[in-house]
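[recover] target loaded
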């Protein structure tokens, strides 16, 4: 697993990393060929594990039975969930990265107090005072402590938004499109 470590994949290199949301092995292969740096899946990550060398962030739904096929697990922070800290500890004990999804400044601060996560997934609800999802993510990003990784999870991601997130210091962005080319930038030069 060390060769596919999720946090390393999104922290290394220049610029913002693109994490492709995929549903099956074909989509995983296509995302890898288009230079995505990681994948995010909702279902069983073992269904695409053999199709890619990219690290997989699993949006866990329920139990941990498929965790071995993932490199990272996304846990949604909920201050009313008494098992959140235990689930976070369990993910870390399994040797996986844990991305904690937060929707507002209060949940970000409470997550820091409870588990001090290394990775934040900034997943905005409806913005305050008519803010767009991008504006909400940028506001949340300003509150992520230095040294922590931040992933933007926007409902729709445009090249302009990716550029703005990169300028603001976001480490990665989840994209839900089959064509990643406009979002990943130019290919590196042949050496």
């Amino acid at each position: 697993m060390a060769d596919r470590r999720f946090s390393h994949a999104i922290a290394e290199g220049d610029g913002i990393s693109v994490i492709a949301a995929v549903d099956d092995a074909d989509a995983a292969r296509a995302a890898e060929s288009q230079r995505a740096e990681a994948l995010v899946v909702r279902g069983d990550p073992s269904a695409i594990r053999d199709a890619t060398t990219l690290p997989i962030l699993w949006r866990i739904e329920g139990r941990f039975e498929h965790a071995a096929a993932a490199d990272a697990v996304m846990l949604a922070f909920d201050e009313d969930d008494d098992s959140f800290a235990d689930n976070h500890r369990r993910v870390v004990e399994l040797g996986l990265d844990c991305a904690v999804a937060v929707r507002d400044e209060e949940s970000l601060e409470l997550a820091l107090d409870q588990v001090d996560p290394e990775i934040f997934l900034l997943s905005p609800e409806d913005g305050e005072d008519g803010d767009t999802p991008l504006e909400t993510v940028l506001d949340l990003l300003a509150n992520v402590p230095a040294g922590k990784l931040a992933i933007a999870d926007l409902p729709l991601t445009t090249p302009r938004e990716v550029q703005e997130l990169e300028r603001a210091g976001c480490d990665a962005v989840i994209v839900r499109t089959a064509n990643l080319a406009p979002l990943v930038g130019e290919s590196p030069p042949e050496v």
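[recover] notes: The helical segments are 6-11, 25-33, 46-49, 84-93, 105-114, 133-141, 159-168, 181-184.
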